[in-house]
Amino acid sequence: MTYAQKFAVSIFGAALIALGTGQIAQAVLLVESESAVVNLDVKEVLFTVNFNQVPDFFTDQYGAQVDSFQYFIDQDGELPILNASPIYSNFSSIIRGDEIHVAGDVRIRDVFSVGLSEPNSGGWGNIRGSVPYTLDGTVLKFSTPLQLIGDSDGVFSYQLLLTEFGAWNGITNENKSIISSVPEPNLALGALTFAALSIGLRLKRKHKSALSPVNQ
Known about the structure:
The protein has 216 residues and is of the alpha+beta class. The protein is 23% helix and 33% strand. The chain folds into 2 domains: 3-179, Immunoglobulin-like, CATH 2.60.40; 183-216.
């Protein structure tokens, strides 16, 4: 089954579930702000998402989380994301918030399946690794090594999708990573040390001058 077919089936299935159970649709989960900030010193990237409401990553109904997210990572840093053929051929990895309810962490997978699909994979590729996350109210944060998402220089682009009961809720955001600019600690320490030494020398000279005998 192609991704387009899987996508259509998931949307149709979610609609049937809502109609069959008579559920009243909850407010749609939206992204108020988000970022991917890279620390090149440690080769890690911090993903932060501020939602419009507290997401539910654990309620699992009919094999799908209530709220979830996915990041498609393009290691070349190009925008728009879907600019290659065949579809997804330019992606290095997919970050799957859709599997948080399985083991309580964020899984990162290959985009294209190799052989038999793994349980809970959603039809995507093998697991590259997983990372912990924090959810403080509406703010989600998690860090991952650049190597785990298939990037090396910290310059990448991504597409963030939100889903509800496994179906895309229509919310998509595309952006580029941000390289954090942190002052070199050695330079800062050197400047402070130099300033302290300069002050100490001046005080020492003044002290010696006060003790010297007055010339006759």
